[in-house]
Backbone:
């Protein structure tokens, strides 16, 4: 009986330490590690966590580099991109706090198929590939959450590829504007994230010239507002209506 009591006492102390750790105090409710902080066998992973600071414009994942682990965005904003035909950059997505970066190369891949660049000063939580794989083998609930995460990611990717192939340039630009609005919101009538026209084009899968032309048209129609490099949506309802037939309006 005494041994059992000691075991419970030791386990409780370990859990208290985890709850007092950086992961335990994390406010990113979407983070899979934080979500499973009370799960047995996760203590070793949390203890080995490394915090990385990145300055605006700094690249922390290079396409083609060997996979060493996964990054969880603790704070900041990141763009994830890959190289397309003729060396043209294609922005795959933008990441916000709580999201995983580098997962497309995790598992059977030996190299990262994407690059990642900080759009503002960022803080990243890094977990090594070997230790994370070990934890996944020992922690069914975390493994299950990762499985659902990958299933959702695959579904989103397939829907996006199908939808973009059927969209006109105007519709792709509108889809991009709605995506940025969902992801980052607006402050004082303009997107909270400042992006270049080229970055809008790289996500929409079109050219910078076409984006500038479409912005001008949408502004004349009263659907868009601009102030220097800043962009704002004047009528979200009408923009949603324009791409509603593609049945492609995802939450993130």
Residues:
């Amino acid at each position: 009986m005494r041994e059992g009591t000691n075991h419970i006492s030791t386990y409780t102390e370990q859990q208290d330490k985890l709850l007092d750790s950086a992961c335990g105090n994390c406010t990113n409710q979407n983070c899979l590690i934080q979500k499973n902080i009370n799960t047995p066998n996760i203590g070793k992973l949390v203890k080995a966590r490394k915090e990385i600071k990145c300055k605006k414009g700094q690249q922390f994942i290079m396409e083609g580099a060997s996979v060493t682990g996964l990054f969880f965005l603790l704070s900041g904003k990141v763009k994830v991109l890959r190289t397309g035909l003729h060396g043209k950059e294609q922005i795959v997505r933008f990441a916000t706090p709580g999201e995983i970066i580098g997962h497309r190369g995790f598992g059977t891949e030996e190299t990262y198929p994407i690059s990642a660049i900080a759009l503002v000063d960022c803080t990243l939580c890094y977990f090594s590939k070997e230790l994370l794989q070990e934890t996944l083998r020992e922690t069914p609930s975390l493994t299950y959450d990762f499985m659902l995460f990958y299933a959702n990611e695959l579904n989103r990717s397939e829907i996006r590829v199908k939808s973009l192939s059927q969209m006109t340039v105007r519709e792709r630009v509108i889809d991009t504007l709605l995506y940025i609005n969902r992801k980052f919101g607006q402050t004082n009538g303009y997107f909270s994230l400042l992006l270049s026209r080229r970055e809008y084009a790289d996500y929409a899968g079109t050219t910078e010239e076409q984006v500038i032309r479409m912005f001008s048209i949408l502004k004349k129609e009263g659907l868009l507002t601009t102030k220097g490099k800043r962009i704002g949506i004047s009528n979200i309802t009408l923009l949603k209506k324009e791409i509603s037939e593609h049945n492609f309006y995802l939450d993130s």
Confidence is low (pLDDT under 50) at residues 7-11. The chain has two domains: 22-162, 168-246. The longest helix spans residues 140-166.
